[in-house]
């Protein structure tokens, strides 16, 4: 009889690889899958286990081809703060600044408007965007990789995860299973304590450069409200931890509630206003995170220059024009 490894103790690399192969491919009882995922979550997933889950998902996803130097800007979600779509706006700004962005995302799970919901409200045809993803990435420097279209292996686990009703290791997987195999990543994670663990996992998977960030409030992006834990990863092993505040970059401090979002129409209107130059906390949050993405993409030498470059890109109308071209793309 096929059995999953005992999840009460951290798994070895071989055990973890076998476990996730079984989760995806074996004829396991749903109760056994649920018990395994819950026990692992209660113990706390290790970097080895996170990397093994990502490898299993990557082996089963539908890939796309991306230009060299492409980046993803993606959060794990689930932070409970229901903010405006920061990473989606950052993706547009960074792409307009000349860095190819393969944006991996989905509809909202715990918030009112995920990246897919907001882009759709802005007028992007998600089905068409999926069909032309490689083309728009090559022609415009941006695409949206709708997670549910690229990860068919997750369909079986979806009802089980929903029935569990709590976070599992798969809530950490989105940024690690980008169908474009990006080698540059800005990843926001909703659990500050997991920043070094997640950084170790992404280093094990191998990147050219990545930054793992978490706001002290459990925000899955760089926060304006207070401090941020940041891990910088180069290649397969160099992980440097640091603390960062918006004030260090000359940006104003704002409470998280200052960028609270709403339904897709509300978030879409806020994003459009931002791209048209509206000042305020949303702009500051986007500048902060865009600066980090530009540094990760080797397009800015440091964060202060990244803030300046992002502001110039918005104020020149480049990001707004890119969104218009993307919506009109045929």
- Determine Rg (CA atoms, Å): 19 Å
Uncertain regions spanning at least 5 consecutive residues: none
Structural class per helix/strand content? alpha/beta
Q: Give the oligomeric state of the chains in this entry, treating copies of one chain as homo and distinct chains as hetero.
A: single chain
In the residues, how many domains can be counted?
A: 1
Helix tally equals: 14
Strand count: 7
Find the CATH topology: Pyrimidine Nucleoside Phosphorylase, Chain A, domain 2
Q: Kindly report the name of the CATH homologous superfamily.
A: Nucleoside phosphorylase/phosphoribosyltransferase catalytic domain
Helix content: 40-55%
Order of adjacent strands in the largest pleated sheet: 1-4-5-6-7
General shape: globular
Catalytic activity: N-(5-phospho-beta-D-ribosyl)anthranilate + diphosphate = 5-phospho-alpha-D-ribose 1-diphosphate + anthranilate
EC number: 2.4.2.18
GO cellular component, one term: cytosol
Subunit structure: Homodimer.
Description of the structure:
A hairpin with a 2-residue loop joins β6 and β7. With 330 residues, the protein is of the alpha/beta class. The strands form 2 sheets. Strands 1-4-5-6-7 form a 5-stranded mixed beta sheet, sandwiched between helices. A two-stranded parallel sheet has the order 2-3. The chain has a single domain (71-328), classed as Nucleoside phosphorylase/phosphoribosyltransferase catalytic domain (Pyrimidine Nucleoside Phosphorylase, Chain A, domain 2). 45% of the residues lie in helices and 14% in strands. It comes from Sphingobium ummariense RL-3. Residues 9-60 form the Glycosyl transferase family 3 N-terminal domain. Homodimer. Residues 69-319 form the Glycosyl transferase family domain.
